[in-house]
Design goal:
CATH architecture of the largest domain: 3-Layer(aba) Sandwich
Strand content: 5-15%
Bound molecules: 4'-deoxy-4'-aminopyridoxal-5'-phosphate
Helix content: 40-55%
Number of domains: 2
CATH superfamily of the largest domain: Type I PLP-dependent aspartate aminotransferase-like (Major domain)
Strand order of the largest sheet: 4-10-9-8-7-5-6
Length: about 450
């Protein structure tokens, strides 16, 4: 296997070439980028839509395809950052939303579909009680509030490097430099951006992923003060990192031993890995589960679910509320998604597509002796450009992001659209992708590998 360093010069050359070719393919997008900068901050609607040398402006999506503002057709493996399980314009989602849009788009009162969605979630997750919101951030915020309200304690534990949305309590030790984090077994609490008071930052303590001893030491250090821990059971914002065998059960046991609660952040993991997400995959039931992204089949919806005891805190000690919670359009889409899109035969189809991708990519990595490996589960996967297995945030920070950067451009030139933050994100399949779509991804990867070695 080659080492990452031996490619450094070649990667620099390729990045320059690819940027310039990319801009030539995107004249209309260039115009939009310039125009947008005037009235849209940084020319985008969310900071994570920015990319170098310019954002990709989308005009339309159909099935597994999207078309950009320049009319280029691309197979969509971006998946709207993890929401796109249904693909674009899926008939079941179109029917449900069209029907509801004519009957009213907003009441701020419960609708029957909300019961159907809650019933479907209770069945998938084996957790009896649910509430809805509008984004992953809201769901993890509710989980943190609820854990604090129920226990009357202030400290929250999270995993170093895990992203859980952009509210204060979880914007700690995400995208932070290693030198600021200090000791790997006992990281400092560092705000991930401005605007978060230090008093709040210090109430969130991080532990390294896959390290039960560090968690136990922290629980002992803050005995009687820890409300709970929020954890993404499979880390999906720094590539894909699986927990060691027994880690997730160990986390639950330790927390409960210290009368603290466990919340799974399944904003990405939910529905895309298994019908019942990480709860099903690991056979470990937390007190609270946060879902969002893939729940709505492309519409805007999130949820939190949990045990009777944990969710009993809602209305008792914490009001989970919001004008658009349980919005009728979102509920209609989520109902159709759970009952008609995320069905067993589609999970089986996805298994087949993922297998084409994983085996094809592995063969190319072997043939070209690349310092890389493939991780994949359910609708998602990624190539990790590292010659050693990544187990946590510190390992991730060592991985050279120029590989993912050039890979992104090669996929784009070959008509495949990936999330712009290549190192962090992964590919996403939808139920409308085909075997040819999966093979296109593999072929583009082979072209990239060949160019890298040339
Ligand atoms: N948790 C995880 C694991 C996420 O990946 C994200 C979004 N990338 C969020 C929470 C926040 O979700 P949203 O962007 O919908 O607020």
């Amino acid at each position: 296997m080659g080492t990452a360093d031996e490619f450094a010069g070649r990667l620099e050359e390729m990045i320059e070439q690819e940027k310039s070719d990319f801009l030539k393919r995107q004249p209309r997008s260039r115009e939009l980028t310039e125009r947008a900068k005037k009235d849209l901050v940084s020319g985008v609607t969310s900071s994570w839509q920015s990319s170098d040398p310019q954002p990709v402006w989308i005009k339309e999506g159909r099935g597994s395809r999207v078309w950009d503002a320049d009319g280029c057709e691309m197979i969509d493996f971006h998946g709207g950052y993890g929401a796109g399980v249904a693909g674009h314009g899926h008939p079941a989602i179109v029917e449900a939303v069209s029907r509801q849009v004519q009957r009213g788009t907003h009441f701020a009162q419960p609708v029957e579909d909300a019961i159907l969605v809650a019933e479907a979630l209770a069945q998938r997750y084996g957790l009896p009680k649910w509430r809805f919101g509008n984004s992953g951030t809201e769901s993890t915020m509710d989980a943190v509030h609820l854990m604090r309200a129920i226990t009357g304690r202030d400290i929250i534990i999270k995993v170093e490097g895990s992203y859980h949305g952009h509210h204060d309590s979880v914007q700690v030790d995400v995208h932070v430099e290693l030198e600021d984090l200090g000791d790997a077994r006992h990281p400092n609490s560092v705000a991930s951006e401005g605007g978060i008071p230090d008093a709040i930052v210090q109430l969130t303590r991080a532990v390294p992923f896959n390290d039960l001893e560090a968690l136990e030491a922290l629980l002992n250090e803050y005995e009687g003060q820890v409300a709970g821990m929020i954890i993404e059971p499979i880390m999906m914002n720094i590539g894909i990192i699986f927990p060691d065998d027994g880690y997730i059960q160990g986390v639950k046991d330790l927390l409960h031993k210290h009368q603290a609660l466990l919340a799974f952040d399944e904003v990405k993991v939910g529905f895309t890995t298994r019908p019942g997400g990480a709860v099903e995959y690991f056979g470990v039931t937390p007190d609270i589960v946060c879902v969002a992204k893939a729940l709505g089949g492309g519409l805007i919806v999130s949820g939190i679910g949990g045990t009777e005891e944990a969710m009993g805190g809602i209305d008792d000690v914490y009001d989970q509320c919001g004008t658009f919670n349980g919005n009728p359009l979102s509920m209609a889409a989520a109902r159709a998604n759970l009952t008609e899109v995320l069905v067993p035969e589609n999970y089986a189809k996805i298994d087949g597509l993922r297998e084409i991708m994983v085996s094809g990519l592995r063969a190319t990595i072997e043939e070209f002796e690349l310092p890389a490996y493939v991780e994949a589960i359910g609708f998602k996967g990624c190539v990790v450009f590292s010659d050693k297995k990544i187990r946590n945030y510190r390992d991730f920070m060592e991985w050279d992001d120029r590989f993912s950067n050039v890979h992104w451009f090669y996929q784009h030139r070959g008509g495949v659209f990936l999330p712009p933050w290549g190192k962090v994100e992964q590919w996403m399949l939808s139920v409308q992708h085909t075997e040819d779509d999966a093979r296109r991804f593999v072929d583009n990867f082979a072209a990239f590998a060949k160019a890298l070695r040339s």
